[in-house]
From TrEMBL:
The organism's taxonomic lineage, starting at the top: Eukaryota, Fungi, Dikarya, Ascomycota, Saccharomycotina
Any one biological process term the GO annotation gives: proteasome core complex assembly
Family from the record: Belongs to the peptidase T1A family.
Keywords for this protein: Proteasome
Protein name as annotated: Proteasome alpha-type subunits domain-containing protein
Taxonomic superkingdom: Eukaryota
A Pfam family the protein falls into: Proteasome
Cellular compartments per GO CC: proteasome core complex, alpha-subunit complex; proteasome storage granule
Amino acid sequence: MTADAGILINSARIQAQNYLKTYNEEIPVELLVRRLCDIKQGYTQHGGLRPFGVSFIYAGYDERYDYQLYTSNPSGNYSGWKATSIGANNAAAQTLLKQDYKNDITLNQASELALKVLSKTMDTTTLSSEKIEFATIQKDKNGKIYQRLWKPAEIEALLNETGITKKEDDEE
């Protein structure tokens, strides 16, 4: 439900800005996730209120815990992960991640794994930059964290480099 997601995203932005204004530092990832999940959970408590119909994957970085990945469901429960998925074909994606994810994975290997999971779980015969979006969180040379949204040409290059341009199930 896009409208529900929009409300929660705006709330996350406000929470992060208020924390920055109050403490003069970025909000810790888990604290932001917890605050959003508190809002989601509150809507399950009162009669006449409809729960938010959205699950999220949160990715972030803070000085204390380094890179972090969380999921939350509409009830407000959240959990931390090393690799995860939500949505359609979630079980198949989780199985692939459990088999192929390694703790010392590089960004390039993680990108290839993400494409592999998408190729086997999406309801499409071919993957292309028109059907997927790709974003990564990285540190620059000065230690500053930034989010990189991949351009369609970069996604196509990665698809060509990995040879994942159609579902691997169809090839086997």
